[in-house]
Amino acid sequence: MAIVFKKPATVFLIPCLVPLVPGAGMYYIMYHFIGSNYNLMQEQLILTILTSAALALGVVVSQGLFRIFRELVIKKNKNQY
Hints:
mainly alpha, 0% strand
């Protein structure tokens, strides 16, 4: 979509990730911490960290793959001329 509309990719990326940000996870971490339920807090903390890491890794991998693809297309076009 960024190429079609000629806008930065972050314009489309950020609104897509906002619903996935683990805000509820952070809430439950604090809820269990205040309630002294450390086992549930630890489980929620691990789940929240893994979810955040997966989102970040997905963004990095998708941008990296696009750059590799774009370089291959540019090289292919240069070799044709």
